[in-house]
Design brief:
With about 240 residues, this protein is of the alpha/beta class. About 35% of the residues lie in helices and about 25% in strands. It contains six helices and eleven strands. The strands form three sheets. It has a four-stranded mixed beta sheet with strand order 1-2-4-3, with helices on one face. It has a four-stranded mixed beta sheet with strand order 5-6-8-7, covered by helices on one side. Helix 4 packs across helix 6. The radius of gyration is 20 Å and the shape is globular.
Length: about 240
Amino acid sequence: MIVGKMDGFEYRLKRSNRKSMGISIERDGTVIVKVPRQAELNNIEKFISEKKIWIHQKLAKKKVLNRERPKREFVNGQGFLYLGKSYRLKFIDNAGLKSEKSPKAVPLRLWHGYFELPETEKANARNHFISWYKKQGKRQLKERIPRYDKRIGVRVKDIRILDLGHRWASCGRNGVINFNWRSVMAPIWVFDYMLVHEMVHLIERAHSDTFWRLVSRVMTDYEKYSLWLNENGAELDL
């Protein structure tokens, strides 16, 4: 991926079989310029120059959001997000989990409005949260894909929950959808927007007019959820 500079910002140039040019700003502020394989450099630079005000506005917003990233500590009373709601962490003794049907399962559980974790697992708290979010993310996807697959006209063959860094989700090949484990921290309709977004990508790979038209047919108010994600996405982390 080629790296270039223009008017105070760097961008990464990504060529593919797409038909039009596009720009995306990743969660970490990386500017990605996506262009057709045969696009000429002078046309690319002209396109970027025309979009530079928009790029600077987006970068300024990302800078503010990144300053506000949460600094959560794994201590009693700390709040952790799940589907848009905050639940406090409570450390308990191991005896508190004896009533569970599967005591050998991941020790973290959401129980009566609290995240409960044995005191003996405190050093591994972050890993337990990630494992829990991955499990819940897959469960939510399996439940919610049937709400949209027939309306969109696609078949999701497999789902994977990964650490995608600053990406919320991605559309793989052959009907595979990848989701960031952090995504399940978002409110359910924002989570659904991410899902619809990637399911539509199984039909239309580029963020073209056709793509957004297909998204709006299924989720008429998708722009509201996209905006929420841009403004609050930095909060969805450990």
